[in-house]
Automatic annotation (TrEMBL):
<keyword id="KW-0479">Metal-binding</keyword>
<dbReference type="InterPro" id="IPR023696">
    <property type="entry name" value="Ureohydrolase_dom_sf"/>
</dbReference>
<comment type="similarity">
    <text>Belongs to the arginase family.</text>
</comment>
<dbReference type="GO" id="GO:0004053">
    <property type="term" value="F:arginase activity"/>
</dbReference>
<keyword id="KW-0464">Manganese</keyword>
<dbReference type="GO" id="GO:0030145">
    <property type="term" value="F:manganese ion binding"/>
</dbReference>
<keyword id="KW-0378">Hydrolase</keyword>
<protein>
    <submittedName>
        <fullName>Putative arginase/agmatinase/formimionoglutamate hydrolase</fullName>
        <ecNumber>3.5.3.1</ecNumber>
    </submittedName>
</protein>
<dbReference type="Pfam" id="PF00491">
    <property type="entry name" value="Arginase"/>
</dbReference>
<dbReference type="GO" id="GO:0005829">
    <property type="term" value="C:cytosol"/>
</dbReference>
<dbReference type="InterPro" id="IPR006035">
    <property type="entry name" value="Ureohydrolase"/>
</dbReference>
Length: 196
C-alpha cells in the first residue's frame, strides 16, 4: 500500500465562535514546510463581527455542516492514509478522523492532546468545537454523528493534558473508561507504555 498524506487547510472558526482561529489556520499554512503530497483548502466564510445564528442549540450549525461536507468530499477525493490538518477550531478534526476510522477501524488509536476532552453536546455548550471527540464516538448531535460511519472505540483514546474537566465531562470519561493524563502526568515513559 502506497502511503499518501493529504494536507488539509481548514480555517474553520465558527465551531469555536472565535474569528482568530481563521488567522491561525492561515499562519500555520504559511509557516509549514512545503507539502510533499496533495493540498486542499476547505472553503470557509471570512470571519465577521455579526452574531452567529444558533440552530438546534449549536452555534453556526448550517455553516459547520456545509464545511464538514466539503472537507469530507476533499478527503475522499484523495483517499489518504494520513492527514495533516492546519485548522481552525477542534471541529476540523471530525471529517479527517471519520475517514481514518473508516479506513483503519480498530487499528486506529487517537491521542487527543487538549486541556478539554471535547465530549460535550449542545445541552452543555453551544459551540461544536467542544463536541468533536464525543461525535467520533457516536454521541451528541445527529448531524455531527452522521459524518462518522465507523465509531471510535473509547479504549482506543487517550486524552493527554486534560485539566479540570467539568462534571459532565468527568462523568462521560468515567462512563466510557477513557484514559486521561493531566499535564503533570504527561511523561515520555507513560506515553510509550500507552502506545504499546
Amino acid at each position: 500500500m502506497t502511503s499518501k498524506t493529504l494536507r488539509l487547510i481548514f480555517p474553520q472558526w465558527q465551531g469555536g465562535n472565535n474569528p482568530p482561529y481563521y488567522l491561525g489556520s492561515q499562519l500555520l499554512s504559511f509557516l509549514s514546510p512545503e507539502a510533499k503530497g496533495p493540498v486542499e483548502i476547505v472553503p470557509v466564510e471570512l470571519p465577521t463581527t455579526e452574531p452567529l445564528p444558533r440552530i438546534n442549540d449549536i452555534t453556526a450549525k448550517p455553516s459547520l455542516i456545509r464545511q464538514l461536507n466539503n472537507a469530507a468530499a476533499l478527503i475522499e477525493k484523495h483517499d489518504p492514509n494520513s492527514i495533516v490538518i492546519l485548522g481552525g477550531d477542534c471541529l476540523v478534526s471530525l471529517a479527517p478522523f471519520a475517514h481514518l476510522l473508516d479506513k483503519f477501524g480498530d487499528k486506529l488509536g487517537v491521542l487527543w492532546i487538549d486541556s478539554h476532552p471535547d465530549v460535550q453536546t449542545a445541552e452543555q455548550y453551544p459551540n461544536a468545537h467542544a463536541h468533536v471527540l464525543g461525535a467520533l464516538m457516536g454521541t451528541g448531535d445527529n448531524d455531527l454523528v452522521a459524518h462518522v460511519k465507523t465509531k471510535l472505540n473509547p479504549s482506543k483514546i487517550m486524552i493527554a493534558g486534560i485539566h479540570a474537566p467539568l462534571p459532565y465531562e468527568a462523568e462521560y470519561l468515567t462512563r466510557h473508561n477513557i484514559t486521561t493524563l493531566a499535564p503533570e502526568q504527561v511523561k515520555a515513559v507513560q506515553m510509550k507504555s500507552w502506545s504499546g
